[in-house]
Amino acid sequence: MQDKIYAMASKSSRGPIDLPGFFADLVRCETRLYNALNDRLRERHGIVTSQFEFLRFLRDHPGSRVADLATEFAIGIGATSKGIDRLEKQAWVIRRTNPSDRRSSLLDLTAAGLQLVEAAEATFTKALAELTADVLGGPSGPAAAQIFSELRSVLERDQIGLPTG
């Protein structure tokens, strides 16, 4: 299967794809975008991108468990729980006992958490649009977005890249 994937990825209308170069570009773009969004969110709302993503997920999936966030973001349960602890200390998230399994908690946003995520989402979306407009606003933008969506779907479907702990 890997040989088939490599052969398919190595052929394009413009010649072979440099897979290590593609990976480097992908990771460096993600890092630079994440850092820039961290800066903007910290400056305007006192949070960082990972906190915004947790808050947004909880807004869209009330009653989630720590394990649900860990799965969504492909990070460990311990790191996720510590992140939720920080949000809880700020009174943006509350934990309530899971009636189906008293060993776990269900997570919800507080009114302050909902207000924060709504304001931060406007900042986040505007900043991301500014950072990507030159490329994604061009004719290949929708195709690029579609390719990344498909790649993510395949990785998630096949449970690739999940943390071990």
Automatic annotation (TrEMBL):
The keyword S-adenosyl-L-methionine does not apply. InterPro entries: HTH_MarR-typ, MarR/SlyA-like, WH-like_DNA-bd_sf, WH_DNA-bd_sf. Residues 19-156 form the HTH marR-type domain. Signal peptide: none annotated. SUPFAM superfamilies: Winged helix' DNA-binding domain. One of its GO terms (biological process) is response to stress. It comes from the Bacteria. GO terms for molecular function: DNA binding; DNA-binding transcription factor activity. The keyword DNA-binding applies. Keywords: DNA-binding. This is DNA-binding transcriptional regulator, MarR family. It comes from Nonomuraea maritima.
